[in-house]
Amino acid sequence: MARSPLARDRRALYEIAVQNVEADVAFIERLGAQGAGRELRTLREDFCGTAALACHWVLQSPAHEAWGVDHDRAALAWAQRHHLTRMRHGAGQVALVHGDVRRTLTPRVDVVTAMNFSALAFHDRRALSAYFKAAWRALRPGGLFVLQTLGGPAAASAAVQRRRIAATQGPDGLEIPAFTYEWQQTPLAPGRVACALHFAWRDGTRKRRAFRYEWRLWSVEELAGLLDANGFTGIELWLHDAAAPHGRRKRRAPARGASWVGELVARRAPIRRRAISP
Question: 52, 71, 120, 185: which has the fewest C-beta neighbours closer than 10 Å?
Fold first, then answer.
C-alpha cells in the first residue's frame, strides 16, 4: 500500500491514536436501544475537531444527520478536505459549524456529544453551566447528552504513558506507518492538570506537543449536580471496560481510589402535556 501524505499529520495521528468513533457510535446506538422512544437519527458533535464521529455517524443510513461544532477553523477545514470530500456516501448529511459550543445554534438533535474530555477545558462553574445549558437547548425532548470525563488518582498525578500504534489506513485510504503515541500529564494545582500529546517514529524524529490541554478534573458529583441544575434527568455513569459490550459498563460510582475513564449520560426531560379540563 502506498504511504499516505498524512503519515505525520498531527490530526490524522490523533484520530488513529486517541479516537475510536466506531465504538462511540455503537455505544450511542446501545443507549438508544435501551431507552423507550424513537430511534436516534440526528447528532451534534461538540468540540468536534476533525468531525470523525459526525462523519461516522451518518454512515449508518441516509436518514442519519450530524452537525459538528468547533471554534477551530483549521480543524474544520481539515475535516472538510480529508473526510467530507472523500466520503462516497453521507457527506451531504454532515454540516460543519464554526463557533463557540456555548452560543452556536443548530437544529435540535437526538444526541449531543462532548467527547475526548473537551468539556474539562471549562475551569469554572459558570462556563461549564453555560455549556450544559447550550447542550440542553440543542436537544429534542428526551434526547441524550453524552459527556466524556475521567477521574481517580492517576488523572491528577504526573505521568508519561507510551503506546505503540501499528501501521494502519489513513483517512485518504493510504498507509499511515507505525508510530509511538505519548501522553504526558503534569499537575498544575489541586484538581487541575496540563496535558500534552507527542508522536515519535523509529527513525528518531518526534513531533512534540502536537496537542496541549489544561483540564479541571470535575468530580462525578459536581458534573451530575450541574447537569441536574440545567434541566437534565436520568443521569448515568458508564465506565470504560474492555470486557464489556461496546467497551462500557454502567456503574453507580467509580470504585474508591481507582482511576477511570467514562461517560456521563443524561436526558433532556420530555415535555409533559398538561391535562386538559373538560
Answer: 71
Looking at domain 10-150+221-268, what is its CATH homologous superfamily? Vaccinia Virus protein VP39 (3.40.50.150)
pLDDT tens figures, 149-201: 999 999 999 999 999 999 999 999 999 999 999 999 999 999 999 999 999 99
**C-alpha cell at position 60:** 449508518
Average pLDDT over residues 123-131: 97
Residue ranges of domains in the chain: 10-150+221-268, 153-215
At residue 140, the pLDDT reads 96
Q: Is the pTM of this model over 0.85?
A: yes
